[in-house]
Structures are given as C-alpha cells and as structure tokens.
What we know:
The protein has 289 residues and is mostly helical. It is built from 11 helices and no strands.
Amino acid sequence: MALYAVTIFLGAFLLFQVQPIVARYILPWYGESPAVWTTCMLFFQLLLMGGYLYAHLVGTRLETRRQPLIHAGLLLLALALLPITPDESWKPTDPANPTWQIVTLLLVTVGLPYLVVATSSPLLQHWFTRTHPGRSPYRLFALSNAGSLLGLVTYPFLLEPLLPTDTQTRVWSATFGVYALVCGICAVRVFPMGATATTAPAPVAPAVDPVSMRDRVLWLLLAAYGSLMLLATTSQMTQDVAVVPFLWVLPLGLYLITFIICFDHQRWYDRRIWSPVLGVALGAVVYML
C-alpha cells in the first residue's frame, strides 16, 4: 500500500500546487488582472473533470492488462512536454480580452501533465483494488485530500517567497518526473493482473432504489453551484483587496477542506446544522457587499 500512498499523495500535491505556480507566472503578462486567476481556476476545474472521466473510462472500458500500457504512454508523452515554463512567445500583444489566450497557453504548456496527475486518485485506487483484493482504498482518498491541501498551503508560505517563478516551474517539472517514475512502478505491478481477469470483482452491495434522473440533475447542479461560488468569491476578494496568491489559495483551501469533512465520515455533515449556517453566511455576504 505504501507505493500507492506515495504516488497518490504526490499526484495530489502536484495537482493543486501547479495552479498558483502557473497563474503567478503569467500574472504580470496580463496587467495583474484578477481575471487571470479566475480563468486559470475555471480551466483547471474543467481539466480535473477530464482527468476523472479518463480514469473512469480506462478503469471500466479497458481490460486490466491494457490499462497500465495506455497510462504509461500518457506519462511518457507528458514527460516529453516538460518543463511547464511558459515561453516568452506567449506574451500577449493585446491583453484587453485575455480569456481565450490564457486558456490556450495553459492547454499547451501544462494541459497534459495536469491531466495526468488529475487521474491519480481514482485510477490508482482502482488499481489498488486489483493488486490488493479485499482491502478498502478509501484511506488513499483521504491521503489524496491531505496532499492537495499541503500543495496549496506551501505555495504562498514557502515556494513563492523563496524561489523565482521560473525556478518554481522547473521544480514542479522535476517533481513530476519523480511522480511519473513511481506511477510507472504501480503500472508495472498491476500489469500481470490482466492475465487473470479483465475487470475487478464487483463488491456485494445491498439492494437500493435506482437513482432518478431528477436526483442526478440535482446533484450535478449542487456540485456546480459550489464551484461557481468558489470562483465568484475568489474574484470578488481579489478585486476588492489585492491580486496575491494568498487570496487565491485561501478560498480554494477552504473549498478542499469541505471535501475532507464530508468524505471522512457522515457524522461530520448534519444538514440540521449546516443548512442554517449556510443561510446566515449568505445573508452576511449580501450585507457586506
């Protein structure tokens, strides 16, 4: 389990640390605009969904022996695109409406490496169940959240004050190389499992009512609402106070903590408590504005 734990922790750390690194690097190119971070956040959240979709499709649609081969190829391709340092040629000539320029820049410079680390938690947990049948992978999910949070908080307090921006991108790229190595070892270990079965054994679950389309749409909208509020709140803070990485990291860190609370144990979330708190908080926000 230790190898999977290290790989998932490192992937989650890289996943959330690269966001302030790249955004801080290109911030001066666009006149220190608050829209830079908002656009970066939107891009990274969409790519994170893409990573989860990739992990789902690979884990459910491909036979076990092919999964590590496909992912190893993706790792090698991502390594070939390092370092993630944006080239000076990407500096905008007209930064008046930078959204699509920023999205294109991010897609070319960091898109594939970010997509790869975004797959770490779901894909490696799936592989863990193949190589360690009967053992629960959910402690690895908690470890992933811890790595993500550490990646966020170390940036404004450690990485940004000590290293110039070009060095930050190179350090991240070198750490990604270490991640690719340990992830490749995990792929090697799961490869022989394909000789015995093509899919993981289905766990025995109690009978439950099918999920209605109404509930599926509601879950999707509620998840989107949380992401929307995160982007809007961060944008408002940076416009009213300052465009600094600490104010980028603080709301994102709190957002991540809510996932840790809700997924750790059901006792942490009681709607009778949190619903009134939400109402008071929203009222306070409106009053302050």
